[in-house]
Amino acid sequence: MKKQIKKALRQSLGILTLSFLFALMPSCKKYLEAKPDGKLTVPQTLTDFQAILDAAPMSNNYPSAGDIGSDYYYLSDNAWQTISLIDMRNDYIWDANAANDYDWLYMYTMILNANIVIDGAGKVPADGSNLADRNRVLGAGYFFRGYDHYALTGEFEAPYIPGGDNSGPGLPLKLKADITDPTKRSSIRQTFSQIIADLKTAAALLPVDVIVKSRPSKAAAFGALARVYLTMGDFRNANLYADSCLQLSPALIDYNRVSATAPTPFKIFNEEVVFHNASAGRGSVFSTSREMADTSLLASYDSNDLRKAVFFKPGASGSIFKGDYGGSKTPVFAGIAADEMYLVRAETAVRTGNVSAGIGDLNTLLAKRFASNTFVPYNTGMDADAALRLVLSERRKELPYRSGLRWNDLRRLNQEPGFAKSLSRNLGGVSYTLPPGDKRYTFLIPVSVVQQTGIAQNPR
Amino acid sequence: MKKKNLLIFYLLALMPACVFAQGSTTGQVSDKTTELSLSGATIHSIRSNTFATTDDQGNFRISIRAFPDTLVISYIGYATVKRAITFQPEGNIRILLSSNISQMQEVTVSTGYQVLPMERSTGSYDQLSNKLIDREVSPDIVSRLDGIASGLLFDKRDGTTGTFSVRGLSTLTEGYTQPLIVVDNFPYEGDVNNINPNDVESITVLKDAAAASIWGTRAGNGVVVITTKKGRYNTAMKISLNSNLTISQKPNLFAIPSISSSDFIDVEKYLFNQGFYDGANADNFSWPVFSPVEEILYKQQSGVLTATEANRQIDALRQLDVRNDFEKYFYRNAVTQQHSLNLSGGTGNFNYDFSAGYDKSLQSLVGNQNDRITVRSENNLKPVKNLEIELGAQFTQANTQQNSPGGLNAIYPGGGKSGLYPYARLATPNGQPQAIPKDYRQSFTDTTGQGKLLDWSYRPLQEISLADNTSRLNDVVLKAGAVYHFLPSLSAEVHYQYEHQSTDGRNYQSAQTYYTRNLLNQFTDLSSGTPVYGIPRGGILDQSGNALNAYDLRGQVNYNHLYRQKHQLNFIAGAEVRQSRTEGFFYRDYGYDPESLTSIPVNYVTQFPTYDGLQGDQVVPYYNDVSSLLDRNVSVYANGSYSYDNRYTVSGSARRDASNIFGVETNRKWVPLWSGGFSWQLSNEHFYHWEAVPYLKLRATYGYSGNANNSVPAVTTAQYRQPQGSNTINGLPFAVVTNYPNPNLRWEKIGTLNFGLDFSTRNNRLSGSLEWYYKNATDLIGLVPADITEGAGTVLSQNSAILHTKGVDITLNTVNLQVPVKWTTSLLFSVNRDKVAKYLYSPTSYANYIGDGYLNTFKVGAPANSIISYKWAGLDPLNGNPRGYFNGQVSEDYESIVNSATAGDIVVSGSALPQLFGSLRNDVQYKSLALSFNIVYRFDYYFRRPVTGYSALFNNWQGYNDFDQRWQKPGDESKTNVPSLDYPADPNRDAVYNFSQVNVLKGDNIRLQDVRLSWEFNPGMIRNLGLRQLEVYAYANNIGILWRANKYHLDPDYVATGIPLPRTYSLGLKIGL
Predict the structure, then answer these.
(1) Structure confidence by residue, pLDDT tens digits, B296-338
(2) β-strands B200-206, B223-228: how paired?
(3) Which residues contact A367 (CB under 8 A, 6 or more apart)?
């Protein structure tokens, strides 16, 4: 009896052990599919893709080399010498070898994120319940891809020539979420047509209203298209899209209601902002201890023009800029605001023969910029040349320190003899100049990229 | 012993007619290993039935009625010995008793899955006994391995003692280089510092594939198996007490080769004259930090101070060295006390081991302390025949108080300055805390706000007493296991372990702390005249929690059979499941009042204007967070060996692992790994007659282990983040893409070939082992430079490298003298040289190779941890500019050198980790007195001396004492390699000098690591006190360098912090009942 019990015990224990070993196997797959990190996800849902687009890097990595080379500010000898990054020192003096790898790196990283969103959200089946979300996310993906490619055109490819064949080397276009996709330069024309296509797709998908202005809206896509067409010298389309943008987002801030003494007079996402975006790497040059506003720019403001006091803070040796539309104390804003759109619509109206509409827009804008009851509206019947000169001068006064705008204006206006400008810097008795149309208006493609991929370097 | 008995028996049989005679016999009883005489031992003659006990010297006299007779000698804690006496012996008979503790019949090693006899193993094991582990005094177990375990190398470059490797690198991924630590049966998931070293019985290091491959994909870096103390069946209860006190010197801050205050001030004056600070001086927007000398110079410039007064004030500052204040007010002699109690024993079917420990440390930083309580119980019982049940529980509680704001490198002004000016004053001569600038210019924070702001000054010394930052760790481990023997040769076992570890942190930063005052001031808006507060008045309470829940379950079948006395078969097979889940949270309360336990809600959404626009518009910092990590593993394994006639052994092992690594196809997750081995105990051969070497064994193994490198999943992953501070602009939860799809990733695999030879000469006068190994680590994941246009960053993780490692481990033990002084020596000697055999991607510029020997860019043909430098061409005799090489030519084109150096422009100095290392330990014993000292040596490696870079000196206030050797006039270039001061500073020029070959020094050094002196009281003397053992010991650690290759008096092992580990002195007492 005892022996039997022992035997049974022995057998059952054996079976138990064996079954334990085998029981592990079939349920394994499910057991091993559990997430290793609750915060980690393989992005698959529209919520995931929206979250990728809501990350701060999507909104504050706009390139900065063009702004460092722009003419709305200057650095003293000391300020220039205390910049620790050699590349930024070199950008300031338009050194032929200035490298701007970070601008390239950051923008293409954001373009890959946009592609992940486009590829992924595109695979989410559309149905009645998710259509609005899907359009918003997918539209934003296209928007960022277009907007960020455009940001790079101002630095790494030669200026677009209106009416030209624009067959010179453009950007490598990244259009899918594949990090093994070969890097090849397209043409300037292809680059711009891809940007236009992406922004138009975005405009069709994006909603009119967004919960926060770091997310692109329909107006943002129209605004971006207006800006791109202006760069291409396609004034008719630029006018059309600026108008579409202003139809949705016409609000202007009355500077009479802005505190000129406030350290940062404007809030982030303020009512004039259509779309918020910011630049990354300008802190070192544009720190409050270094940059000084260009004196001729400062001198150009009328005494009743509130912009001078709102935008600038005078100091012992010069004035520094404080009128950032991103609520930052150093200039970072790289988004789209209604004032820019009024100026685009004004310029393109004047250029397409509608001076009165153009000057009308200018008057609308300036009425909000001058001290109450001091602004005398310009004559809407003025001569077209004078009107264009006026609009462009107001454009310079309204939009200094806005990422990319002045640099792109220099690149396109240099093609018009009447507006071409030769830039110069003085440091320690040495003077540096950048004549119109100089090859240095196009920065070098990162050397590592050229070495690894064999794509053509920009000429010097 | 057995042979001797047989011989006696044989003699007896031959001589039936014995001469019976009466008399008495004298003798001495002593400990077999220590040769200490044992007093109070009982001697019983069986036939005569007489008794005697030994005296203080261990001597006895017993009367014997007739020969032959047999003596039975017994003594508590020792194995009883029988000694047949045929004739009246001439003179004293000498009886040696072995302690029960060392009564193991054969040396066995534990792999965590099974206990193997060393004799029949094929693999490479290094076993550390309890005695060896106990030599050192420390609250943690890992640091005790340093200098006593063969092939283990501690990397101390980060100033800590916890990073080590077994036989060098097996992976190139930072953070995945640590060996696996197994406690008893299972990998230890909790904090390894929870283990009280007093609870450790032995440690086995598994070094080659045959030893470690049973641990599969986690064994790539080697395995350390810690076996805790267990009770023994049929043993009377033993109580042991160990108590010690350790005092350490203050860290020697003056070992850091810092720039002198006077030189630093001269630099500031120079920069002032260049107008370097003018931009910052005019900046009344951001108010950048200014040093006291800079302030004085501007006061002089504006006429507030006369030149004489300014110079007088500056000259006073030249005399100061902030390290004096740190040594006086921030550091103290660390004091650690450690007490432990252990009870163990057992009956025929039950045994127990219970221990309790208490440790408390006052750390060298004033304000920091910790204590730990450990309670542990291990029980085994045999309720029925053939069944053994194991039950264990362990509890650890550790409290940590971290009130120090940090030491020398942790206190700095910020606002762009990552160093502290060397003449900073932290206290007045009578000890009153002094303010230093922090975040903003002091002249601004002292005066702004019309009295409506909180005090804005930062007094680091005051912060120590204001801080209230504690954490508590509770750890519970419960284990249960059962072994059932179906047949004598067949058994099955099940083991289960559950661990719960929770850590609760609480950091209360009252309204008096700088952190809180600064934050509250920043969120005060005075623009309307009346203050508007974005953050309510009061303190800030941060609470965090972390809970680990882990379980391990294993089922295993063992088969162990000896056929016909010659064929020994040993086989195990099993499966296991392991899961560990870690959940954490962080929660902050603003406006916290510890009296009423209330806090005040804040608006985390709206951007507030910060004070004076200092930070633009900001939302209130939001840190709340919840996290959850889950690690699951499933494994099946088998391991077997066959020995023939105790001469030849072959072994094999196979294993498959799977885990829930993210997004890997399940079939890819399963990794098969195998190993095989052969050993030949030559000395058991019939033809073996080398009597001088009675034990000789040869071993050879080959096999694979792996590295589960979870750092790079093969699919696109994104990680959700909380919107906190500057990481968000829109306040929405967001996700960051953390990994881009890389479908070709494979697990890292390490093949190891090992040859070994074990030997011992007669009487163990010389014993040891020699091992040679070769590791071929393939598919290593390395960072390769990426085309940044692809958008996945500057580098990508890929299976891109092959690493070859060759090494030798030699262990030699000698017994130099036996009596009256026993002197033994242990020599450890290891060679470990690795070489990157293949690296798929070469960087676009050779400048990318430049590094200090951390795992970054690997150069084929050089060690993975290579220090690689710019080739140095001396200083330019005209201007003191550093000169490197570009395209093979002497060059001062720093930008080109730094961006596009070519092959001939760089130099590989060698490994940053010792490639030849070991220790020499001597143990000397004379009667009760024992002395042990360990000399450790580390050779064949290099380090980079910290030197001044002018850009870092000007901008961040970081400088070193090479500054006073800088080139100043033509001719200096023959005496120095320190470049002239240049303005504006060129970071590339700095880099060419900082990373040049002239600053790489040989690290070779020999140091006296520790000395232990102990006095073990004669058992006879203490028996009256009822004691079994009484030992007092003194121990000193980190004693100092005996010889070093570098002439700068730098300790090459602690270059990163510059502060060598302080010397410690301990005094302790061991009591056995």
Answers:
(1) 999 999 999 999 999 999 999 999 999 999 999 999 999 999 9
(2) antiparallel
(3) A375, A377
Say which DSSP state B848 is in: G
Q: How many other CB atoms sit within 10 Å of the CB of residue B890?
A: 13
b/e per residue B984-1023 (b: at least 16 CB within 10 A): bbbbbbbbbbbbbbbbbbbbbbbbbbbebebebbbbbebb
**Phi, psi angle pair for B722, to nearest 5°:** -80, 140
Q: Across the interface, do A78 and B276 touch by the CB < 8 Å criterion?
A: yes
Q: Is residue A61 part of a domain?
A: yes
Residues of B in contact with A215 (CB under 8 A): 730
Query: Nearest 5°: CA angle at A382, between A381 and A385?
Result: 140
Cα distance between residue B5 and residue B19, in whole Å: 20
CATH code of the domain covering residue A130: 1.25.40
Task: Assess if residue A426 is contained within a domain.
Answer: yes
Residue of A60, A264, A448 lying closest to B729 (CB–CB)? A60
Which of B282, B577, B631 lies at the smallest CB-CB distance from A317? B282
Convert the pLDDT of each residue in A155-212 to its tens digit: 999 999 999 999 999 999 999 998 888 999 999 999 999 999 999 999 999 999 999 9
CB of A328 less than 8 A from some CB of B = yes
Which residues lie closer than 8 Å to B442 by C-beta, 6 or more apart? B289, B290, B295, B435, B436, B457
Mean pLDDT of A147-153: 97
Evaluated on CA atoms B161, B166, B169, B172, the torsion sign reads negative
Instruction: Report the predicted TM-score, pTM, of the whole model to 2 decimal places.
Output: 0.82
| pLDDT at residue B77, rounded to an integer | 65
Amino acid type, B9: F
Domains held by chain A: number = 1
Q: Give the residue from B44, B228, B342 showing the smallest Cα distance to B1028.
A: B342
Q: Domain for residue A409, yes or no? A: no
A217 found inside a domain:
no
What pLDDT is attached to residue B730?
Answer: 83
Q: How far is CA B980 from CA B883, B892, B954, in A?
A: 12, 13, 14
Domain region containing A112:
2-69+87-206+422-453
Confidence class of residue A281 from pLDDT cuts 50, 70 and 90?
Answer: low
Q: Please report the ipTM that was assigned to this predicted complex.
A: 0.88
Length of chain B: 1073
Report residues of chain B scoring pLDDT below 50: 1-4, 6-21, 101-105, 666-667
Average pLDDT over residues A318-328: 91
A34/B527 Cβ within 8 A: no
> What are the strands, taking DSSP E only, across B859-977?
866-870, 884-886, 889-891, 906-911, 916-926, 929-939, 942-944
